[in-house]
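Study this one:
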Amino acid sequence: MEYIPVVDGSGKPMRFLAIVNDIVKSVSRDGVRWFLWIDDVGVDVTEFVENGVLRLGSSAFDLERLFDKAPWLFARTIDSVDDYVQLVKDMCLEAKGKRVSQAFSGGKDSSVALLALTKLSNIIDMKLDVVYVHMPFIEPDRNVSEAIRIARRVGVDVTVVEPPRREVLRELYRHGLPKRGCRICTYFKVAPLRFRSKALGIDLQAYGDRMWEAGKRFERLFYRFFLDNRLVSKNLGFTVIAPLTIVDVVEECREHSLVHYMYLRGAHRVSCVYCPQKPIFELVASGMSVEDPGLIESIMRREWERAYSRHGIEFEEFRRFHLWRFSPRAARNLLEAKLHAEKLLDRGAPYERASDIIESLRSLWLYGIEAPRIRLRYLMSVLREVATKLVEHRKSSRSAS
C-alpha cells in the first residue's frame, strides 16, 4: 500500500495517508490514526481498532486485508527521466522496432510513463501509439482536454476514442453505476483498445504500473525488474516505470508541467466522476459534474430499487453515502458503520472535514516533496541480492517439503 505524503509549504512531510474505500489511515510521528468518512466528515475511530479489525456496532472491517503490507519506499531515486532512461534502456531492447501502444489517462503514472516512452523511442526505435479512452455519461469532458494538453506538453498527439454510447447506457441501466470489484468501465475501456491494437498491428502494450503502489503489483514486478532486469515481457507488457516511487513521479510531473487538474482539486487519483474507487470525501467535495446529472439520478434510483431497497437501505441513504460503489451486502455493512460513527460524532468524537483532507492531498502538488535520496542504481544492486536470496530460500523450502 503506497502512502500519500502530506507536506507543509517547504515540502517537508507532516504525515502520510493511505485510502481504501471510506477509511483513511493517517501515519505521523504521533502514531497511526484511523478515520471513517461519513460524507464530508471523517470520524476518528482509532479506539475501535483492535488486532487489525475495526468494529463499529455490528459492522467489522479487516484493516490488515484492506491495507496490504507490501513494502513501500519513500525516496527520490532518479535525478530526471533522462537519467532513468539511460539506466534502463538495455532492459527495454525487446521493444526495439515494435509498435507500442499506451492507454493514457493523464494521471501522474501514465504521464511519466509517456515521458519515458518518448525518450526511449528515440533510442531503441519504437513506434508509439497513445490512446485516451473516454467514458461517456460518467466522466467529465474536461478529462479529455486535459489528457490532450498533457500529452502535447510531452510532444505527443493522443488519439481519443470511446466505447459505443448506446452499449454503455444499456449496461448502466442493467447493472447500475460501476462498483468495486465489478467496474464496467474496465471492460468498456479495454475493448476499444484491443480493437485499435488489432487494426494497427500493435505489438506491445505499455503500462504505467509501479511496484511500490500495492501488494499485487509489487509481487508481479519486483523479481521481474530486480532479478530478471526486464521491463518488457509478452505476458505483462511494457511496465516502463516499474521501479519509480511516488516521489519520483510527482517531482517529474511538476518539473515538466504535467500536473493534472484533478490533483489540484484534491483528488488522489485521476478517474471518472462516478469511479467506485473514490472515497466519499472526494465525491462530495470535488464539485465535478457529468453531461446529464438527471440520467445518473434515474440510473441510481433504478439500481436502488432493484438491488438495495430490500436490504433496508433508504434511497436518501443510498445517494447521500454513495453506496452504489459497493455490493448490496457491503453497502449495508458500511451504512451501519457510518450511522454508528454519526452517533460518535454527536458525542464529541474527534474528526476531520473534507476541505481539510482535500487541502492535504493537494499539498504535494503545490509544494513538491522533500524526501531522502537513494540512487536507483544502488537500489538495484541491493535488491537484486535480496531477490536472489528470496528465490533460493523458496527453492530450498520446496525441496525440504
Notes: The mean pLDDT is 94. The domain at 81-265 is CATH 3.40.50.620 (Rossmann fold). Residues 53 and 129 are 46 Å apart (CA to CA). The first strand starts at residue 4 and ends at 7.
